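Entry 12.
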Amino acid sequence: MVTSSISPPPMAGAMMAYSSRAERFVLFGGWDGVEGLNGTWVYDPRNVTWTAVHPLTRPTSRGDGMLVYDSVADVFVLFGGWHKEANDTYTRLADTWVFSLANHTWMAQHPVRSPSARSDAQVAYDSHADVVLVFGGFDGTSYLQDIWYYSLRNDNWSPRPSATTPSPRADGRMVYVDSQDRFLVFGGNDFSGPNYTFHHLSDTWSYDWKANDWTPLASAVGPSARDYPVFSVDPNAGLALLTSGFGERIILDDLWGFNLASDTWVNLTPEVSPPARFAAVGGFDPVKDVLVLFSGLANTGLLADTWHYAYGGPVGASAALPLGLAMASAVVLGVVVAIALWSSFKRRRS
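Predicted 3D structure (tokens):
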């Protein structure tokens, strides 16, 4: 199978979420190696096609924002991210937008108060409580530990302090497990390494909204420390799937499954995998029963390839299927240069 001839450009740091009603993904923004982007794209996993949409009004260009699908209102909620200014400085954002896939429109929201401006936060939507939960992020100077939730029906952001929380971090990933009514958080970075360098995390946390309780989950084995992975729930297999990311001076291509029943990690890395990457986007389509992976920064540069992963049950029986293998790059880079490029970019944004 091959994607349509139309595809988003090579990018990293975009935002993508899945609509359970339309059975489509929506992608917004990203970074093309020079500028932030503000294109809106729709991906149909069944027909394996990307379609650009062109709303009259849309958010400003940005990368590393927070985008989730609100299944009650049937809209996508966008918050924050970073925006590159004309003078090559980077501004963190604190704006809230909603996108309707039904009529291809973006609409700015105007809550009375909002979280402080930030990018790279952990975010997920709770369909039971009907709220968007945001944890941590990076404000350009500090790694954050605060927790906020957004109610679209009230157009209101509220803080959600808790006695115990994960440590400050950015670029980790959070998912919501509908069948268990809880959130999971994995990894990230907190800039606490020697000589004030990046420090990657490998911890897993569970959050109960009703009890407002965060719990660390220990596992004998698990993914290595990383930031910028793709993390999504496969409700059909009872797993939360995690792939790719940036570890300790290495770009990763492994695949892990978090068993939702036993709270343990298992290595599912198949024999055939997409090229190692980080700052990609993806999500799980329960109808087609595949994990979708798109774009990211690899050893060869920025990517625009689309992959589907089908879980086959036993370890080794699964496979990642390439869909449209024109892995376009903004520029051919070695791994050291690719990492230096992104690290420099992060510093310029701080």
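Annotation: The first helix runs from residue 335 to 349. The chain has one domain: 15-349.
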